[in-house]
Amino acid sequence: MQIYHNINKNTSKGPVALSLGMFDGVHLGHQSIIEKLHQRAQSKNLKTGILTFWPHPRLVFNPSDTLKLLSTLEEKTSRFESLGLDFLQIQDFSPEFRNLSGAEFVEEVLVKRLNVKHLIVGYDHVFGKNRSGNFQLLESLAPKLGFEVEQMEAVNLHHQTISSTKIRACLETGQIEQANAMLGYCYTLTGKVIHGKKLGRTLGYPTANLEVSPLKLLPQKGAYSVEVWHERQPYMGMLSIGTNPTVGGQNLTVEVNLLDFNQDLYDQTLEVYFKAFLHEEIKFEGIQGLIDKLKDDEKRTRAYFQAL
Length: 308
What we know:
- This protein is 31% helix and 27% strand.
- By secondary structure, it is α/β, with parallel strands linked by helices.
- It has 2 domains: 2-157, Rossmann fold, CATH 3.40.50.620; 186-306, Beta Barrel (Elongation Factor Tu (Ef-tu), domain 3), CATH 2.40.30.
């Protein structure tokens, strides 16, 4: 997959079947669009491409917005690559770009610069200055500008429309299995191991303290069964998100214990896949209560993986 950060340097030789949007999380709804892209590209002899935006428009228009994202740009790019796209165009949401009207965006960007011949949009997609672009505008412009357009219906799971917003809500309330079902994969954190207070090793459960992107959404505070990938090898793990209230902690940390593992991990990058929610953050009366709970979490985590 070719990746372009400057639309003027996109050397992809069209014509192109394309979709556009934030694609936060690249969930099952997004995956259905990409599957349709491949079908249309194959039947019309087109390349496949995605036009996405960075940073998120909400954060551009309102820098104080507290929005957290399901996927960093690197994680999203990796997802796109795994889905077999020919190219990814990452568009900076610059003042010049966001001042294009819907019609200007279609003609100048989609048609003239990207050579789009087939466009697929989501059921609720809007674009252009003041959200002036929508499916009706695309339908009216398509015959004149020489491209075809189709709108995808919402994808439902258990009679519920899949959306990035609903997945965020599930993660923020510890509903990991529901979030994973809508994503079509296990929710992931990627982080570099940094030095912490090294409390875990005194409890018999040494942890790797992860430095995570400040834009990345962290699930609800608590403990989770996770799968941790290190140097292309998977390990069972227990992850904690919280402030360590039992020992008077105040700063939010993300710490993961790899079961049956005793190597130095400092400055290395780990990929963590959330499997199951164990419990909310607990403040114990003493250290022994915390140790007992860690032992129980380990037992439940091992049982979870053995049952797979």
